[in-house]
Amino acid sequence: MKILITGGHVTPALAVINELKKDKTIAIVFVGRQYTSDSELTLTYEYTQIEKLGIPFIHLTTGKLSRVLALETVTSLFKVVIGLIQSAAIMRKHKPEAILSFGGYLGLPIAIAGYFARIPVYVHEQTIAPGLSNRLIGNIARKIFVSFPETVSLFSKKRTLLTGNPLRPEVFREGNKPFPIVSEKPIIFVMGGSLGSHSINVHIENIISELTKDFVVIHQTGNIAEYNDYERLAALNIKNYHVGPHVYQDNIGWIYRHAAIVVSRAGANTVFELISLQKPSVLIPLPWSAGGEQEQQAALMERAGVAVTFDQSDASAKLLDLIKQAYKNREQYRRNFSKLRHLIQPDAAKKIIAAIIPKPADHERH
């Protein structure tokens, strides 16, 4: 059986791919972005990770849907048409028997092309508030998998399955130390998602001299060439400050295990990893996330008493205070994680695969 996997959320996709690879009868192809933008040749995190697994990677050029009427919207719609044409060609060439999308604008043209080619479409919604693309895909999907109980009612009840969010197994492993850390100071792990966050990078730059007096800081900056954040921050050469553009799979387990506090966006994958590992955090929700998903997810964590929230428009000094506050209250935060344990489903990837791949008994009945 050949399964085509696509979408903007690569972390749960990798979790499902790792589970699928255990079955040698299954072939996988992945459709995504090879470069971080159309104007630069920096390879994306998803491309490097999929290539490491030896899975065929197909680059797709497409645009984002928007309700705002502007010149950029017209240009983006033109790219959507290109994406649909490319997606139809991908269906004809690769002939997948199932499509699994992990959200985002990349998944929409693939799902539409698959639907018209009569290929079963499945979609996983990681967030508490579905974006426009997933809401549209939900209308044609054979099955919709969701992470949060609150999301079930937003799709067709008959076709929606609460699976939880697939977690990459690497976060639970010891992993390798990414830097030669010799200090005994507690570790703060700062990350901004696979692409990084320029806003978070600037805030950390403003407070790093003070922060490293009390902590070791591991900082994932991303590698967007427009800002050159990684090069600029690495050149600071500050003691107890370790900078990298990405955090790779063989390092993430070590960093999570040894970090006292995590400073991060409030994406669904990060939130589920923090809950699973019971890591106190300072969350900085992306202000323009689809449907306000990151604000809602950060609020859920804050209400449970396992995180504090920082508005990226606030002064950097406030972020420094919140990090110190979270560290001071970390033991209480850890105890509060019991309120969120119901959200974690260890077999999420297996549940998704079981709904896509028919069991031998199913073949016998047909």
TrEMBL record:
Its main location: membrane. It comes from the Bacteria. GO terms for cellular component: plasma membrane. Residues 187-350 form the Glycosyl transferase family 28 C-terminal domain. Residues 6-145 form the Glycosyltransferase family 28 N-terminal domain. GO terms for biological process: carbohydrate metabolic process; cell division; cell wall organization; peptidoglycan biosynthetic process; regulation of cell shape. Keywords: Cell cycle, Cell division, Cell membrane, Cell shape, Cell wall biogenesis/degradation, Glycosyltransferase, Membrane, Peptidoglycan synthesis, Transferase. One of its GO terms (molecular function) is undecaprenyldiphospho-muramoylpentapeptide beta-N-acetylglucosaminyltransferase activity. CDD domains: GT28_MurG (cd03785). It is an enzyme of class 2 (transferase). The keyword Cell cycle applies. Pathway: Cell wall biogenesis; peptidoglycan biosynthesis. The keyword rRNA processing does not apply. It is a peripheral membrane protein. Coiled coil: none annotated. Cell wall formation. Catalyzes the transfer of a GlcNAc subunit on undecaprenyl-pyrophosphoryl-MurNAc-pentapeptide (lipid intermediate I) to form undecaprenyl-pyrophosphoryl-MurNAc-(pentapeptide)GlcNAc (lipid intermediate II). Belongs to the glycosyltransferase 28 family. MurG subfamily. This is UDP-N-acetylglucosamine--N-acetylmuramyl-(pentapeptide) pyrophosphoryl-undecaprenol N-acetylglucosamine transferase. It comes from Candidatus Roizmanbacteria bacterium RIFCSPHIGHO2_12_FULL_44_10.
